[in-house]
Amino acid sequence: MPPDENALLLEDLPADAQSRPTEYTYTPPSSLTSTMGLQQFDVSHNRLNGTIPTTIGALVNLQAVDVSNNPLFGMDGCCEGTDSYYKSFYDYNTTIPTQMGVLKKLQVLKMDFSGFQRHIPTEVGNMRSLQFWRVKGSDEHRVSGTIPSEFGRLKKLNEFMMEANALSGTLPSQIGGMDALERFQVQDNLLSGTLPDVFAGLQNLNEWDTFNNQLVGDIPSSIQLLGNLDYLYIQNEHSDVLRNYYCKQRIEASAIGRKHNHQVIAREYKNYKEVSACANPHDLAGAFDALSGDV
Predict the structure, then answer these.
(1) Is 111 exposed, middle or buried (0-12, 13-18, 19+ CB in 10 A)?
(2) Over the stretch 125-160, which tens digit does the pLDDT of each residue have?
(3) CA dist 213 to 51, 173, 233, 234, 266, Å?
(4) Is the separation of the CB atoms in 104 and 60 below 8 Å?
(5) Looking at residue 25, what is its pLDDT?
């Protein structure tokens, strides 16, 4: 077949071009460059500044986020001196951007010992796959505000850990809807009001810690329905129901203000009662027999 008269022959090229290697341009497929498939985001134990961008809500396949142990990460004032475009990504007043509420696959969120001092957005109730919520505070940085009632929607939540923060307000009764909850730790906060009657719905609960808050009143009697409870840390003022039921005894005065596992104490009192170590509160002889001896 005769050559195409329009074809470019090698000898038609400049001499220097004939010796140059062929250059190829490669564009990787979007499946390799897109972060939409990202499942784990772990930047813990660093010295990051700034905060979580609002664009994290686009990472719809995220299953775990860990930004813990970054003391400066999330601090207020991240956007001072920046333009409006920058602020659109980083300037918000919650511990996490509300856009994270669309992360329906997220199972783990760890923000322990970071610089966040803002309140919790109600959108957390939309993260229906969430199993571990860990936001421990520190002496320098504490999350403030109330515990949103929307946490009650999280039927798969296994751990709620927010000790040593500045949480205020009451404990929402909706937390009784967290069926899978095993550990609930909010000790060393500023919570007030009474302990809500939520224990009947928390049959998997193993640890409850509300010690060192501003809560008042007795612990609800539904606490006795929990068969898996091993650790119960409450203010001693709440334990009158337990202590008055078992042996009609009270913890020694020196123990007031100290932290005790009241579940262990309750079991000990119950054992005392079963082995008749307690004084009989219904002593018929003492009540009806004639008195004798000196007064």
Answers:
(1) buried
(2) 999 999 999 999 998 899 999 999 999 999 999 999
(3) 29, 17, 11, 9, 21
(4) yes
(5) 52
Q: What is d(CA 167, CA 183) in angstroms, rounded to the nearest whole number?
A: 17
Give the single-character DSSP code of 160.
Answer: E
Q: Find where tokens 């060393």 sit.
A: 188
The ranges assigned to domains in the chain are 35-280
The pTM of this model reads 0.76
Other beta carbons within 10 angstroms of residue 194's beta carbon come to: 14
Q: What is the mean pLDDT of the chain?
A: 82
Q: Are 201 and 176 in contact (CB under 8 A)?
A: yes
Looking at CATH, the fold of the domain delimited by 35-280 is given as 3.80.10
CA distances from residue 146 to 62, 118, 190, 212 in whole angstroms, order as listed: 26, 10, 10, 16
Distance CA 101, CA 214 (A): 30
Cβ 62 vs Cβ 38: under 8 Å: yes
Find tokens 């700034």 and name the residue. Answer: 50
Tokens of 95: 């511990």
Q: Which two tokens stand for residue 190?
A: 């500023």
Bridge partners, residue 133, by sequence: 109, 160
∠ CA 276-282-286, nearest 5°, is: 105
Task: Identify which of 116, 99, 122, 140 has the alpha carbon closest to the alpha carbon of residue 50.
Answer: 116
Q: What is the predicted pLDDT for the residue at 287?
A: 45
